Structures are given as structure tokens and as C-alpha cells.
Amino acid sequence: PQLVLATRNHKKLAELRRILDEAGLQVELAGPEVFAEVPDIAETGATFAENAVLKARAVAAATGRPAVADDSGLCVDALNGMPGILSARWAGRHGDDEANLDLVLGQLADLPDDRRGAHFACAAALALPSGEAEVVTGEVFGVLLRERRGENGFGYDPIFRPNGYDRTTAEMDAAEKDAISHRGRALRALVPHIAARLGG
Ligand code: ITT
Description:
Layout: E1 4-5, H1 10-22, H2 32-36, H3 48-63, E2 67-76, H4 97-107, E3 117-127, E4 133-144, E5 160-162, H5 174-180, H6 182-198
Parallel strand pairs: 1-2
Antiparallel strand pairs: 2-3, 3-4, 4-5
Helix pairs in contact: 1-6, 5-6
Bound molecules: inosine 5'-triphosphate.
Residues 7-9, 12, 70-74, 87-88, 95, 97, 100, 120, 153-157, 181, 183 line the site of inosine 5'-triphosphate (ITT).
């Protein structure tokens, strides 16, 4: 059965496709039109994992096909882990990447270099129409710069520099980001579960 990638975020969708493809997943992916039919899903969970399962289950139930969802975000040490699960709507309007990034930059403006730690987190869930679900997580740790660098990626990538690198994830090409990203790590951990349930 075709696997539905359950996201309305086009940049995230592109990364999911790329990572699954690169991991050698043989399962056929459903087109975005399948997901477009699904009503909006309220992300009422308290954790990335809860929200990922909630999204994947809702889409599997609505489409009658297995679904993969990703719930992810930026967790800032100095903000006690926020914006976290609120990352997509931190500045108010859902998906306003520029405003969200500006708000975080402003909130951290007075923080010294040694207190600018942060990590990206991703929970990736597979759900079947029966309601059965698997969820795995991935993280990448780094620091937040004081200004944007790079044009690639999306969201908070222009200010996130992974530990051990001298570039932001927005200055990395797709393969470099996927190799170390929270999403790459989570999705590669989900692939064996997808293969076990769906073949491929
Ligand atoms: P769906 O729920 O439809 O998948 P969404 O964008 O609302 O789309 P999330 O609720 O998981 O998804 O929010 C993810 C937010 O976290 C995203 O909008 C970015 O602000 C941030 N984020 C997640 N992964 C990121 C990455 O790889 N690089 C930069 N920012 C990221």
C-alpha cells in the first residue's frame, strides 16, 4: 500500500522524501493530493512524540493508508527548551519562519556565546489504518548564532550551527544536513519499522 507523508510543510516534505529515498526505502509514496484531502489536525500533544503519533494516526485513519508524520522543533537551552513543540508558531502565525527566527534572535540578543546552546528534535511516527503506531526520535546539538547565515533548509536553519561544524545547517547542502540532522536521524531509525510493516 502507498505510504502517505503526512505534512503540510513543503520544505519538510522535501526532506522526508529525500531521506527515505536515500535510505533505500522501496515503498511507494502517495502523492501530496492524498494528504491534501485530510482535515486539519489539532496538535494537542505535550511532546514531539505525542504530536507525531497524533498526526500519523489521524492521516492513516482518514486515508486508509499507512502514514508517516514528523513533529519537530528547536529547543533552546536558555529558553528552557522553548520554542520546542511551538516552533512553527512561536511568533504567532503558524509557519511564519522569518518572524519565528527574528523572535528567537531577539530573545537571545543579550546572551553570551557560551550560553547559546540549542538542539533540533524530531519525532517520526509510522501509523497504520488499524491505529497501530511506532515512534522514534532524533536530535542534533549546536549553538545559535547572532545573525543569519546561508540560504538552504528552512525554519531556524540560518542561525543553527551544529557542534563540530563551522557552518549553519542553512549553509550545508541537502546531503550534509540530512547526514546529521534530527530529521535524518529519526527517519533512518524509522525505516526498519516501515520495511517490517510494509515490505521494501
Ligand atoms: P506539519 O505539522 O504539517 O508537518 P509544521 O511546519 O507545522 O508542519 P511542526 O509542527 O513539526 O511542523 O513544526 C516544525 C517547526 O520547527 C518548523 O516550522 C520550523 O520552524 C522548525 N523546524 C523543524 N525542523 C527544522 C529544520 O530541519 N530546520 C529548521 N527549522 C526546523
